Structures are given as structure tokens and as C-alpha cells.
UniProtKB/TrEMBL annotation:
It comes from the Eukaryota. Transmembrane segments: none annotated. The keyword Ribonucleoprotein does not apply. InterPro entries: C1-like_sf, DEF8, DEF8_C1, PKC_DAG/PE, RH_dom. This is DEFI8 protein. It holds the Pfam family RH_dom. Keywords: Metal-binding, Repeat, Zinc, Zinc-finger. Residues 55-106 form the Phorbol-ester/DAG-type domain. Belongs to the DEF8 family. The gene is Def8. GO terms for molecular function: zinc ion binding.
Length: 224
């Protein structure tokens, strides 16, 4: 689409009166289109198939799908013209150019070493305890949206910027255990991937955490 727009812009420039304001505007548009195309292209196609960053094990993708989003910059991954990687542990996806900027450790490592849930409901401590910075990338955030909107993760209670919190929805274990509430809540990208990896692990000892729940939920009585 960009290539087609560039060619169309060239034709418009040649058709317009020389040195006219419209021609100058068309030239500026052409420059912007070319810069955008250059930004999308990767500088080096001969990149390694495997990259290890912060315990992520990234594999270069061969899929040409354009429906993926980069977990680092939140922009679309244009598979046709961009190189991109996926972590085999937590399925973190990002552009090749974003790999050096990855700041989130692989949550698969946390699942392997510390397979347990946060069992307090939205344990908020306040933005001041985070120095008004994103809990993950440390970008400045505030509740007023200046310079960036602070989004709370219902699982951790921490605040994240819009690049680290996409308003993904997930069932929060603490709400299910204490309130039998399975309504999906907004969580950060990191929490969403952690919960997805933990969902099949039998780590919740319900009789110890909330034994009274068996008196109120018929299905649990049958299971017991």
C-alpha cells in the first residue's frame, strides 16, 4: 500500500505546475511516505534464528501474518516486510528492531520457579509507591493521563502505561477464590501471560484458603 501511494504521489508531482504550492505539498508527502516505508523495512535480514533476552528464548518467525501486535512498541507487525520474533516460553512477540528494548523478563521462568498466585484482591499500594512510573518499563504515568495514562492491573494492583497494559481481560484467581467471581477484569500484558501459563497448574489448596466456600457452592460440594 505504501509503495502504491509513493508511485501515485510521483505521478501527482509530475502533473502539477512546477514550483506551485500544491507540488511542494505533494513532495513533502512523498518524503513522509518514503520515510515510513524505510522505517518498516529491516536493516538486516540475515539475523539469527534464535535470540535469548531476559530469559526469553526468541525464535525468528517465518509467518507472513500481519495480524500480530508487537508487545514492546504496541504497533502492528507487518510480516510481509518485517522480521519478528516470538518467545517459545511465554509467546511474547516483537519486531526484530524492538528486541534490544525488551524490559519484561519471560514469565515462563516465574511459572517454573515460583508457581503461585497473588491471592489478595487487587492489592493496590498507590502510584506514589511506584514514583509515578509504569511498574514494568518505568515510563512516567499519572491518573490524569499526563504524560501517559496509568492503567491499573486488577491482578497485581500495580499501575502500567498503555504500552504495557492493553486492557486485556482475564479471570482473577483471588476474586474467584474469595468471592466465587469469574468476571474477567483488566490486567497488564505480563499478568495476562502469567495467568494463561498458570491456568492448568493445580496450585490452589481451596480447603486451606477458603474452606467456607464449600458450604455455599453446590458444585464444590459434589467435587469434594
Amino acid at each position: 500500500q505504501l509503495c502504491q501511494a509513493i508511485e501515485e504521489c510521483k505521478r501527482v508531482i509530475l502533473a502539477l505546475p512546477e514550483h506551485s504550492e500544491r507540488q511542494k505539498d505533494a513532495v513533502v508527502r512523498l518524503i513522509h511516505l518514503r520515510l515510513k516505508l524505510q522505517e518498516l523495512k529491516d536493516p538486516d535480514e540475515d539475523e539469527p534464528n534464535i535470540r535469548v533476552v531476559l530469559e526469553h528464548r526468541f525464535y525468528k518467525e517465518k509467518s507472513k501474518s500481519v495480524k500480530q501486535m508487537c508487545d514492546k512498541c504496541s504497533n502492528i507487525i507487518w510480516g510481509l516486510i518485517q522480521t519478528w520474533y516470538t518467545c517459545t516460553g511465554c509467546y511474547y512477540r516483537c519486531h526484530s528492531k524492538c528486541l534490544p528494548l525488551v524490559s519484561r523478563p519471560c514469565v515462563r521462568a516465574k511459572v517454573s520457579h515460583q508457581a503461585e498466585y497473588q491471592l489478595s484482591i487487587c492489592p493496590e499500594s498507590g502510584l506514589d509507591s511506584q514514583d509515578y512510573r509504569c511498574a514494568e518499563c518505568r515510563a512516567p504515568v499519572s491518573l490524569r493521563g499526563v504524560p501517559s495514562e496509568a492503567r491499573q492491573c486488577d491482578y497485581t494492583g500495580l499501575y502500567y502505561c498503555s504500552s504495557c497494559h492493553w486492557n486485556d481481560l482475564a479471570v482473577v484467581p483471588a476474586r474467584a477464590i474469595h468471592n466465587w467471581d469469574f468476571e474477567p477484569r483488566k490486567v497488564s500484558r505480563c499478568s495476562m501471560r502469567y495467568l494463561a501459563l498458570m491456568v492448568s497448574r493445580p496450585v490452589l489448596k481451596l480447603r486451606e484458603i477458603n474452606p467456607l466456600l464449600f458450604n455455599y457452592v453446590e458444585e464444590l460440594v459434589e467435587i469434594r
